[in-house]
């Protein structure tokens, strides 16, 4: 017996060793479990991540997909870890001493109370958490409404709490006496905290927890450097009148800036130094529908704030906007505020049956009615930027209805700005979505505008110091600058063979630019991207352009700057940049450094992972970085290092349970399209893949995905597309091919790319040709609907939100944005390349509905009744055609959902139904009840129909 146990132990160790080392496959069966739908909620993600200014602490949140998460404090010097449950809205104090956050009530308790039909006011409130990084002590404050820390200081915390009144019942022996007293003299109602009246504001000195309280505060705000705090209050009827106050954090004294018996004070603002304040106020106590706000200004030395703008001294017919938050220029010399049109108000004497609700579509409207509807709230709050010159006390309106957009320079310090207008060209956006605009140079002293360029196609901006206006002209595929000083226009990439717009773009429109990194100090140099490299352009072409990264195109390395300092306005001439790098050939990625002084670059890290770019964090005052790396098998956990990347330390383990589940692998696959174009795709294989076996295979695609080979895909309910990991864990192959397009033939292009890829995989011998499914959503959904009219290769297909009839869809509306759908077909993703009357046959030939009689593939569709991208009648048209033809077809409509699912219960439900559908056709699993018999409307919301037909109902 002992000998037998010894042999079994040896076999177990051998198997474990082979598995750890990634060695050759053994005959031993893996003990790992396949993923199930029950694992979703517990799978975690790292959300917030930050590093303290001194580089000592990493702070991050780890949250399950549904449930209670936590914030983790990781000491990067000692490796000590602490955590607090259910934390969110995390902030680290600027002095590296404290972490402040909101603590939510336990999710289970909240759900249980909601099931008991508890009122909102009776549910538990959030709690404020204050964690001391030095002592590891946690302080809590109940009933939190909000909190704020100074942007550039660490000594103070401000927070608001809601006082919960206890409901007390008078005792029997005193109840009569209380009623008698109340009857003698009516008591004045006690003022209660509310959104209208405000809540209690507490100022807390973090070092010693000393607190100062103010009642009924509506708004509050620190100045940038934490010297003062401003707040507005409705008053406490005794010691504090309604108004606006400044609390001096150094002297800990309160100064009133403006007081009144009643009023609405809002949009509080400091200048950068904390020596000036602005706000708007309405002192009218009547219930008039039109509110006449005034702009108030205060600066050190004044006794109180003064009204500086109202209807008496601004543009006739306009009001001071209550929706625009005033802001100062960085040097405090200018105060920017908004003017607004007088609102159109309803006649309140009319009865509902006397009001005519009518939309009038006019052929010369700037925006069609649906667009106007989507923009309604924005238009109601529209402001025209204006400036108050503090020293001269002059007001200048900058933006107008004709020229509405203003871009300030040098943080508002410059006396010139860029003004732009798309007004003359708005009608064109119905069929030319990229649009046009006119550019002007605007004088902030006078409001005068000078035309720079008309009808440009491409976004324009102004350089940090305001010396140049710059834009990429899409028709010219070129960068241009306008010199403010000389008034000249320069084409920067004139004569260069390298392209600065998408070289692989296959839309019937101008390709988009690759973008830019930024400007160097004093607007000396403009750093721009081509497909691979970073170029330095002299904005006036006095010097030849310089390729800073030099070898990108030759080695097919894509270099891009990582912005480590979000406050950085420009690069210093000798600055060293951290670059992200992606190898188009090997799909490796990593980091390089680039020194702008001598253009020297250094490889820091390259590997078979995807490394973070936007999620990379640097300590402000130390050479400490937080970054992530991921692969299909590796969750993007956090790693800490310095700017050399020589010493890398893993500091998180979000999903240790992954090791217990069968996961699989991914590899690159190459083939030629039917047009002879070399293409790539991703082939995901089950764990312990055996090339001698045959597997069912799922095909999913959406344009190009091969560069995403190292993306990690956590098990999760699906929004619209299959979860590769789930399918692979359950014994499927998943193939994700790249698709390229020929203008005018999108459906045929998909066929020419996908079919040879799938058939070549079948020839490898490990794909069961009788068990291939295909899934796609939106653009992929359309192509699936098209493909099954041309081939019977697929045993089953799912098409989410498909356009089935390009003729009817062309004249429709994208209800989410209000845009006409015309642009989609003429110049955008559908790639028809012309109007319906110019190219009618292309619209017909690419519309699956006209070939519905050729479909022999069972089809599942999801198309929701509030889809704002593809109108759901497109799914209905295809469903009704296939239904009449007697083809097996199902359509899922999740009520009140849009283009992709957002509600978690619906995402879980869709995941189960999609997998049931494909398991039935590709694995001969039992058919679920909803596929066999449907679910009658009478049983909606009660019977899901998920029971498999060979199982008894619960």
CATH superfamily of one domain: Alpha/Beta hydrolase fold, catalytic domain
- Please identify, by name, the CATH architecture of one domain: 3-Layer(aba) Sandwich
Largest sheet: 10 strands, antiparallel
- Give the strand tally: 54
State Rg.
32 Å
Named CATH topology of one domain: Rossmann fold
Helix content range of the residues, please? 10-25%
**Low-confidence sequence ranges:** 1-28
Structural classification: alpha+beta
Q: What is the average of the pLDDT values? A: 93
How many H/I helical runs?
15
| Strand portion | 25-35%
Describe it.
A hairpin with a 4-residue loop joins strand 22 and strand 23. The protein has 15 helices and 54 strands. Among the domains are: 149-164 and 194-262, no CATH class; 369-615, Methylamine Dehydrogenase, Chain H (7 Propeller); 661-933, Alpha/Beta hydrolase fold, catalytic domain (Rossmann fold, 3-Layer(aba) Sandwich). It is an alpha+beta fold and 954 residues long.
